[in-house]
Amino acid sequence: MDRKLSFKEYILLASMLFGLFFGAGNLIFPASMGQQAGANLWPAIAGFCLTGVGLPLLGVVAMGLSQSEGLFDMASKVGRRYSLFFTCVLYLTIGPLFAIPRTATFSFSVGILPLLPPEHEKLALCVFSALFFLIVLYFSLRPSGILTWVGKILNPLFLLFLGILTVTALLRPMGDPAALEPTGAYVHMSFFQGILDGYNTMDAPAALAFGIVLISAIRNLGVQSPRAISGNTVKAGCLSTLLMAAIYCLLTVVGAQSRAVYGLCADGGEVLYRIGTHYFGTLGGVLLGITATLACLKTAIGLITSCAATFVELFPKSLSYRAYAILFCLFSFGIANFGLNRIIDFSLPVLMFLYPLTITLILLCLCGGWFRYDRRIFVAVTIPTALAAFLDFLKALPAGVQAFLHTEALLEPAAGILPFFELGMGWVIPACIGLAVGLALYAMRPKTQL
């Protein structure tokens, strides 16, 4: 019989999950959004929380309700070959190709780079990223202790340092956001721009990736039945995302206040650095560096752990967990030394392809009980979504790559045919049409399948 988890254990699980989610993008994008939104920051926050908090929560809940053992199990409802492809691409994208290297480069850019002369940047990045991934590897090679490392140690330290910065800024505000004019898209569509900003956190794909870590942690606490694991997964997910929403609100408000003194900054990293040095001088820069490094360390540990465990499960006759963890750390170290901007430039097109497939998979698994997780509906939605998402992928490629591939032959007609294509959401209507077709096929199924 499954044991009932205590409130303290739920808090610990939620802390672990929050710690895995909350990384570099979760810090920089709300602060930057607050600066640009100005007086319209609250509609922007609402949109941001819808996708930056709501989607990750739905992802965790969908995994729990569908009683899936992980991403591969969820995606298998479309088909096993598709599941293998989607699982590998998603984990590599939010793992060693983009997200894991970004954790090291962001920590370096915020905490170390402002203190160095330009001529020492490359060598310093190499040394810093080597030390960073040695620490990540140390914790990743001990996956059974991830609940302790992240939930009890790294995450509380991160929250302590972040709390010092944000509370100080709220008690001694630099200005009144209500007096600041919104800029750009935040003037007339701050809510919808907030929705798009929430995509940048990458937390919806991460929710599917971290599901296996949360489920393993719950099992290690003595819960084994699928129904009990499902219920505990949902409860821990709700607690974790509530904390995320609260911190997003604080970061957005603090970012907006800083504009009264420093004007618009280049990015969220600069916003946070300005806030830290404004209140605490050089010590503030050090404090911010510690905060960013702790945030990124715990996310990198979770990603390495999830990626290694998943590839061992997908390819049991290939490498051991230890070998995969070492390989991913070495590969991430190499990619990190290309620099933060280059990583972000090449990750965006891949995310534009993956996000629609992630969203539709989450929603279908949430509602799957109503149509018995019928494969025809999953396939009917996924095919048109993938085709439209591929066009979003092409549209997000760097201009030079688009010119080389002559993508205008596809993108110009798509802009005239697909609603919302210019917003990067051209997949919405094709997905809805696919859902209608799938439901019709389900309704017409032979009576022997009822």
UniProtKB/TrEMBL annotation:
Membrane topology annotation = Multi-pass membrane protein
Q: Where in the cell is it found?
A: Cell membrane
Query: What Pfam families does its record include?
Result: Branch_AA_trans (PF05525)
- InterPro entries membership: Brnchd-chn_aa_trnsp_Livcs
UniProt KW keywords: Amino-acid transport, Cell membrane, Membrane, Transmembrane, Transmembrane helix, Transport
BP GO annotations: isoleucine transport; L-leucine transport
User: What's a single GO MF annotation on this record?
Assistant: L-isoleucine transmembrane transporter activity
TM spans (from-to): 12-29, 41-61, 82-102, 122-141, 153-171, 204-222, 234-254, 286-312, 324-344, 350-371, 378-405, 425-444
Gene Ontology terms: cellular component: plasma membrane
Similarity comment: family membership? Belongs to the branched chain amino acid transporter family.
State the PANTHER family in the record.
BRANCHED-CHAIN AMINO ACID PERMEASE BRNQ (PTHR30588:SF0), BRANCHED-CHAIN AMINO ACID TRANSPORT SYSTEM 2 CARRIER PROTEIN (PTHR30588)
Protein's job: Component of the transport system for branched-chain amino acids.
Q: What is this protein called?
A: Branched-chain amino acid transport system carrier protein
Gene name of the record: brnQ
